[in-house]
Structure formats: C-alpha cells, structure tokens
Design brief:
With 884 residues, the chain is α+β, with helices and mostly antiparallel strands. It contains 20 helices and 40 strands. Strands 1, 2, 3, 4, 5, 6, 9, 10, 11, 12, 13 and 14 form a 12-stranded mixed sheet that branches. A 6-stranded mixed sheet has the order 32-33-34-29-35-36, with helices on both faces. Strands 16-25-19-22 form a 4-stranded antiparallel sheet, with no helix packed on it. Strand 38 and strand 39 form a beta hairpin. Helix 2 packs across helix 3 and helix 13 packs antiparallel against helix 14.
C-alpha cells in the first residue's frame, strides 16, 4: 500500500553530526536548469533541480522562485512517507507565486535520494533539514534575519509534518511551522498503551521498501516487535528519540497544527499533545481538525493550503493584518452529495482550543459484570478501522462517513462486553476523548482490550462507530483484578436526542496484536462515561434532506455485504533480512486448483543465487508454469512461501518491481518501431523514464539498428529479442523467461543464449523454462527438475549430467579393436565403444569406476583421463522415469 496522501497527504518524513552539517553541503549535480512553470498567474514560477550532498547522502531537491524584487522568506516543504518531492510540487509553485522561495526535497531512501530511512532520525533526516536551511541562507533571494539565519518556515504532512516539528526543535533558525496529519510521539502512535499497532506498522515497512531500505536498528526493532506481538522498552526508546516530543521544550515558534479525524494511524490525540506542549512554551498555536486523514476522506487540500499560506504571511512576511483563521476549527460531516457521493462538509470554530477533556458531561451506563473471551490466536479479530482503505482524497471515505452509518465494523459474540446508556434527552456533541473507569480481571497475567463508543439509534438502526476509531489498553497484573481508567478515541460527533451511547470493550481488533494465548477477562463498570463537549465551538445549522436518513441504511447493507463476502486483506509478512541479497527462495510451495484431483505443485523448495542462469525443466504438467505464476504474484499458493530478496511474494507486492518476466510471448503494435513500443510500455508503468535503463537493456538484447524499424518488418527472432528487451526494462534483478527460443532458428537460438548469459554476467539472475534440453545445457549454470508437481532434483548442470553410469575413458592413442572387445567383456561392463578420444564405457549395475581403471591398467590401455559422460537429455529422462 502506498502511504502517500495526494496533495496534502504527503506522509511522514524527515541531528546527524550537527557540527558537520553546514560544511558537508556541496552541489553534486550542477545548479540545475531554470524552467518556467505554466500558470494562470502572469508571473511565471521557475524551478531548478539539483542534487545536494549531505554527509555522504545525495538529496534530490527542487528550488522554486517567482520574479520579484528584493529578498523574500523561504519555505521548506516536506513530502510524505513512500513519496518524493514531486508530491508537493503544486503547493511549492503556489507558495512561490505568493512571494516565497521554496525548497523541496526527497527524503533519505525515497525518490532519487540515497541513504537509509531513519524515520526522521535527528542524525539523519533532521540533520538534512538543517543542511538545507544552510543552503537557503546562502541564496541571494532569501531574506536573512542575521548572517547564516534565513527567515524560513517548514511545512509538510505526516512524515513531512513530523520533520517540520523536529526541525523547529533542533534548529533555532526556523521561524514558523505548519505540520499536518502527523505524530507527536511515534512510539505512542504505533504502540498505544503498550499494544502493537501491527497493521499500520506493517504498512510502514512494506511501503518503505522493507528492511533493505531502513536503518538496521529500525529493521531489527520492527522484526522483534512484529514477531513477539508486544513492544519492548528498547523499541519505545528508539521511536521516542526520533519524535517531536523528545524536543518538546525547544519548539517555540508559531505552529499551525492540522490533524485528521479519519485517522487511525495518527489520531487527534497526537495533535492535542503537540498543542499543549508548544503553547506551554509561549508560542502561538492554532488547531484545525480536517475531515480526512490516513484512513481516507476529504483532506480539504485547497482550504488547508490557503490557511498555511496565511499563517506564513503573518509569521514569515510579518503581515500583521493577515487573518490566520480561528484558534480552533473542526470540519463536520452533514450528509452526502447526491450528485457525486462526496461528503457535505461544514466548519465549526471556537476562539480558543478546547482540548480533549473540556466541559465533560457524565452519561450513566448500565450492565453488570461480563465475561469476555480472548480466542486462541486472537482470531477471528473484531473489525473497527480499515487502515488506508477508506477512500481517496476529495471523496467520502468510509471512516469519514461513519457518522452516517456507512462504515464497516464488526464485533464477535462472546468476545466483547457492552454497557449502554439510556436514550439521551437532548442532542450532545462529543468533541474530544470520552473516559470511563472499569474493573478488569483476567485468567492471564496481562489483558489487552479495545475500547470504543457506539452511537445507537432508536429502533433497529445500525449502531455507528464515529470515525471507526478504537483505543487499545494493556492491563498488567490483571489476574488479581485492577481498576483502569480508559481514554477512548478523540472524536467530533453529534449524538442526537433519543439515541444511546454504548461502550464496547473487545478482546481483539484487526489492526492490533492481541495475546495469542486464550484467556477470559471479566469486565465491570466503576463509574459513568464522561464525554467532553465544546459549547464554545459553534457552526450554523444545516438541515439535511430526507434521503440522508434512508441512504445510510442502504450503504450499511452494502458495506456489510462487502465485509462478509470480500476477501480479507492481511498485513504483509515482514521481510527477512538474512535473504536480502538472495534473488529467490521457495520453501514448501504447494498449489491445488479448485476442482483438481491432485496438487499442481507439492512441497517444492529451492534457492537461486545472484549471477545464476537457472533452467526450470519438467514434462508437460510438471507444475513449471504454475510455479512461475505464483512467483510473479499472479496466483496465490495454498501452502509455503516465495521470497524475492527477502520479501514475501503476494499480488501487488512492491518487490515485484525488481522482477521482469517474458511469458507466452509479448504483444507489440506493428506500425510502431521497436523503440516506440518499448517507450510506450514503460510509460504505461507510471515509473520515471530514466528508471527504464532503455539503452542498457537494448545493448544486452543486441537489437542494433533494427530497433528503429516498424515491428511488422521484424523476423520471429527479432520479435523474441524485443520481448526480452521489454522484460529487461528497468534492469530487473530477477528475469523470468518462459520458452524464450520458441520459433527461432539455430542462429537465433544461439543469439538468445548469449543474451541470457550477458544479462546474468552483470550480477543479475535469470530463470528460464524451456523444452530445448541441449540449449539449456549450454546456457544454464543450474537446474531445477520437476515432475508431477514435485521437485525431482536441483543443482549445478555438471552435477546433474555427471551422475550417470556412462564413462568416457581418454587414451593417449586410439585403442585397437581386439582391446576394445576385451574391455567390453570385463566384469561389470555392459558395453564399450571406441571413439576419437578413447573409449565410451557403460557400466553394469555392479560395475564401478575404480574397478574399471584397474582392469584397463592390467590390459595396458594408455589411460589419460576418466570421467562421467551423459547428456542432459539422458539425465532428464532418467530423473523423470521416462514420463516425458
């Protein structure tokens, strides 16, 4: 899953050796080229791209300015996790037109920048921000507060938002920040109340590219916690020291905090903690709760960017008359637009930020002590949020529309306790985090529960889970019983007159790790449910049309049907760092098609190393094609696993970008040239043109001048080589070729053999499936032989062909006929035939090579060499028992 948020949704990014930061910044790739960016504004925006070096890491940057006299403030604009500087280009252009010098960059490990992902390591990504600020201080367009100190603001969403907060804490030259949908303490976000947020953590590491792209200590931490299912003190320390909360006392600049309500990754509590800490330092802080977030919904990109611009106008340009908006604003959902299905939004605001506990109201709950079962393996899990699957920017994400009953949630009977209020006598808007105290006893030492508050309408209306949020809690020492005060998810939700509130405490949740051992919890109430309200936050009434009430019911039915019939998404398996350099490892792979009487592939295991050309052999029905289809993520195995460079293969796995395949021919547009066909194919992948490595692939394929002719003029051999070149675009580390020599004449087959050998010679790996055994013997270094779905043998070609019962005896001179007859009559010898080089001797079942040598010496045969002699065809037929 791609964590990038369109426009605003630029996710998470972000002191290395502080003393060396300024000196280490040098231009590697020239000053770039100034180009005009088209705009409705008559003043063009100019961009220059360049690569800057910071302590051995190359940062890909873009610098935006518009024509204006004098110096101007600067803005550093960060992007989101899994993204690059290109994600924030539009916002950078708009800020440049508004009179700012804007610098964007791809953070370490993303885009074209090098280095390992450090999750905003102060010694890595945040030191990079300091170095970029040094660079801005030397630009003649940038306003300075003093030598070396530019007037600069930092903005970004999620990963880039955390970088903005951290930059303000580590660099006193930062003058204002505008972080959005980000974290204050990453340990609290991923390990809330001691519970591992496994689904989002898995998305992080998968989106980042797996362990090979992260700093080693982060990889080890993730694998340790993912395996145990429980965060440890070292994991918390590692994430906390990379969080803004670690430098809370040093963030003293005007801060605009934009946080998402549809966000199970970084919920509203993260922004609340930041607001309280920064305001305590005496800095101005405004808080804006938008409708969307990491779970989808409307990110209100245009409105938020306008507000960010006004914030910087006030605190960077010094325009005191600029209105920056209310101290607190929250977007509320008021129905669905019937024309396009988007949520209808309206804003509510207050003159002060109410926090998450303001003006509490007690809501009595009823229900006695209840037993809750934690099932073995914590399965099946309850469903609350569907991280990242809730809808796109500008649309109505499921979490955003949960207030209308359109979300997806599910609790299993026997696995939760429920306590319900009486019908409310008047409307209540909850703004903040409800709290409740309960008593918990467990049959195990620890208990893990997930708290949530439902809005239950009258009659048979389906309960609503606001924003689809849940709050986990780990209770240690629960065997003896313990009173626990639960802080439930922060929400902004109106509960109407006649509705009830229902507190649910579930033993499992899809997004989190629960104890695998079965246990029983007993839960009882110790007080009322306290819900915060914010009477000072007001909005104009917006009457809803009647269809708003029946549409949610239809949506609820549809959502429930999707939940019950759809295929369950599972978190990605963690990469194996020990296999990071291994192109392919297949372990106990099995596949049986529906309706089939036997397995197509059964418990197959083998490993392929770099530089090998592996031949996959077997008769028809051996399971070769099924194995290749599972390797390419086209079908799912029933058992076992496939790992490519340590990453488990599944449909859509990011590591598949390192794999190229040519299976059952390729289709080309006949009227286009070979080069045009390849360029068209690469553009369809959506990847940058420079990543295609077109010329290198063409050189390996050896197409020559024919590349610029129309494909309709190509011979079959040229088409095959063009198809191989297409598979090699991007120079994948693992190349899969299925019958690449079909339809080729002998000279063309020889050329194809040389193509495969040249490609593997560069340190890459080729897997070829072919029926031409003689060709496989000449081109492959290793073999895997399959028959009836099972692995028969795997190893080097020489080992497999050399294990037969026929020996070639080299002699100093030709052997005379009578001597050949004597050899053929020896014990243990089935036959002997004279050849140009000596004798070809086939042994009986009781014959051995040492015994043969002894007899040859006795007969005065001038032996100079002796070795096995068997063609691959002979070995193949022997291995499969003639079933071909």
């Amino acid at each position: 899953m791609d964590l990038r948020l369109p426009g605003l949704r630029a996710l998470l990014r972000g002191p290395r050796r502080l003393l060396a930061a300024g000196a280490a910044l040098v231009v590697l790739a020239g000053a770039g080229t100034w180009t005009a960016v088209a705009s409705d504004d008559p003043a063009p925006v100019h961009r220059t791209d360049q690569t800057l070096a910071v302590d051995g890491v190359r940062l890909d940057t873009s610098y935006f300015t518009a024509r204006s006299a004098g110096r101007r403030p600067a803005v550093l604009l960060g992007h989101g996790f899994g993204g690059s500087k290109d994600d924030v280009r539009r916002q950078a252009e708009d800020l440049a037109r508004d009179g700012y010098a804007v610098l964007t960059w791809s953070a370490r490990g993303f885009g074209r920048s090098t280095g390992k992902i450090g999750l905003n390591d102060p010694r890595g990504e945040i030191a990079d921000v300091r170095a970029l600020t040094d660079w801005l201080a030397r630009r003649p367009e940038v306003r300075l507060d003093r030598p070396g100190d530019p007037r600069v603001g930092v903005a970004g969403a999620s990963y880039g938002g955390a970088a903005a907060l951290l930059a303000a804490g580590y660099d006193s030259r930062v003058d204002a920040i505008a972080p959005a949908i980000t974290y204050w303490n990453l340990a609290d976000a991923l390990f809330p109340d001691g519970v591992f947020k496994k689904l989002w953590a898995g998305v992080f590491f998968s989106t980042g590219g797996g362990c090979r792209t992260f700093e080693p200590e982060l990889c080890r931490m993730y694998q340790r916690v993912a395996e145990s299912g429980r965060p440890d003190a070292e994991a918390r320390r590692l994430l906390t020291e990379r969080s803004p909360s670690a430098v809370a006392a040093r963030i003293k600049v005007p801060t605009l905090l934009v946080q998402g309500q549809s966000d199970s990754l970084f919920p509203l509590g993260q922004a609340d903690a930041a607001a309280r800490a920064i305001r305590a330092n005496g800095a101005p802080v405004d808080v804006d709760w938008i409708a969307g977030g990491h779970d989808g919904g409307d990110l209100e990109t245009g409105r938020v960017q306008d507000r960010v611009g006004a914030w910087f106008d006030r605190y960077l340009k010094g325009d005191k008359g600029t209105a920056t908006g209310p101290a607190f604003r929250v977007t509320r959902t008021g129905g669905v637009n019937s024309t396009d299905g988007t949520a209808q939004l309206r804003g509510a605001s207050g003159e002060t930020y109410p926090g998450l506990r303001g003006n509490p109201r007690a809501i009595p709950l009823t229900g006695g002590a209840q037993r809750v079962d934690n099932p073995a393996g914590a399965s099946p899990p309850a469903v609350s949020a569907l991280p990242g699957l809730g809808g796109g920017s500008g649309g109505a994400g499921l979490a955003q529309l949960s207030s209308l009953g359109l979300g997806v949630w599910l609790d299993f009977p026997g696995q939760y306790a429920a306590f319900t209020s009486a019908p409310l006598t008047r409307d209540v808007t909850i703004t903040g985090s409800p709290t409740v105290t309960v008593h918990i006893t467990s049959t195990s030492d620890d208990a893990v529960l997930f708290g949530k508050v439902y809005d239950v309408g009258p009659g048979g209306a389906r309960p609503v889970l606001p924003a689809q949020l849940v709050a986990p809690v780990r209770v240690e020492g629960a065997r003896a019983g313990k009173d626990v005060t639960l802080t439930l998810p922060a929400i902004d939700h109106e509960v109407r007159h006649g509705h009830r509130l229902r507190l649910v405490l579930a033993a499992t949740d899809l997004g989190y790790a629960s104890p695998a051992a079965p246990a029983t919890y007993t839960v009882s109430l110790k007080g009322d449910l306290s819900v915060p309200t914010a009477p000072g936050v007001t909005t104009a009434a917006a009457p809803l049309p009647s269809w708003v009430w029946w549409l949610p019911l239809a949506g609820a039915v549809t959502a429930l049907a999707l939940l019950l019939t759809g295929r369950r998404r599972t978190a990605a398996t963690a990469p194996d760092p020990a296999l990071a350099d291994v192109p392919l490892q297949i372990t106990d792979l099995s596949k049986k098609y529906a309706g089939g009487e036997s397995y197509s592939v059964r418990e197959v295991s083998f490993r392929v190393e770099k530089g090998q050309v592996l031949g996959l052999l077997g008769p028809n029905g051996a399971g070769k094609t099924t194995t290749l289809r599972m390797l390419m993520g086209l079908i799912r195995p029933d058992g076992g696993e496939i790992r490519v460079f340590g990453h488990a293969i599944r449909p859509g796995a990011p590591v598949l970008s390192r794999l190229g395949a040519f299976v059952e021919g390729a289709g080309f547009l006949p009227h286009l040239s070979g080069r045009e066909n390849l360029q068209l194919y690469w553009r369809a992948t959506g990847r940058p043109a420079e990543d295609a490595h077109l010329e290198e692939a063409l050189e390996i394929a050896g197409l020559g001048s024919a590349l610029d002719r129309a494909v309709r003029t190509y011979s079959q051999g040229m088409r095959q080589r063009l198809a191989i070149a297409q598979a090699m675009l991007g120079l994948p580390d693992l190349l899969i070729l299925d019958e690449p020599t079909n339809g080729l004449d002998p000279p063309q087959i020889r050329e194809m053999r040389e193509v495969m050998i040249r490609y593997a010679a560069g340190g890459r790996t080729v897997i070829v499936s072919s029926h031409l055994l003689a060709e496989v013997e000449q081109s492959c270094t290793h073999l895997v032989v399959m028959d009836r779905g099972r692995l028969v043998q795997a190893g080097e070609v020489g080992e497999i062909t050399g294990s037969g019962d026929t020996l070639l005896v080299g002699t100093a001179h030709p052997v005379e006929g009578p001597v050949v007859e004597k050899v053929a009559a020896l014990p243990g010898v089935a036959s002997a035939v004279r050849t140009d080089d000596g004798l070809l001797v086939r042994l009986d079942t009781d014959g051995t090579a040492p015994a043969l040598v002894a007899e040859l010496v006795r007969l005065d045969v001038p032996v100079t060499s002796l070795g096995p002699h068997r063609r691959l065809e002979d070995a193949f037929l022997t291995l499969i028992g003639g079933s071909a």
